[in-house]
Amino acid sequence: MYSxxxxxxxxxxxxxxxxxxxxxxxxxxxxxxxxxxxxRDERCLAPLATMLSHRDRNMRILAxxxxxxxxxxxxxxxxxxxxxxxxxxxxxxxxxxxxxxCEGALxxxxxxxxxxxxxxxxx
Length: 123
What we know:
The protein is mainly α. It has one domain (6-114): Leucine-rich Repeat Variant. The chain has helices spanning 6-14, 26-39, 45-50, 57-70, 75-80, 88-113, 119-122. Helix 2 (26-39) packs parallel to helix 4.
């Protein structure tokens, strides 16, 4: 897993949005969305959430997948807003991401509550 300072993260997040001097291409935005997701850092949620209102559905789906990579309970409320998107493929991507996050949280909760089965104790 990568780790960035707050300053580096802000610089990366700024590359997603157009400025008076530079409008990022779709490819550039996509690259930065993927990079933010790969960081698996909750600090990336805010810049990724801005991409959920992108005019292109493919970018919204890419942002949903990046948010899913962060895999935190904090991501679910952000993804829920996509359940009312005008595009069915965006809504489906959001449903899948929310389901995976919830199943992952439930699975880790169950594994923590199960007693440890140590084979050496039985011998």
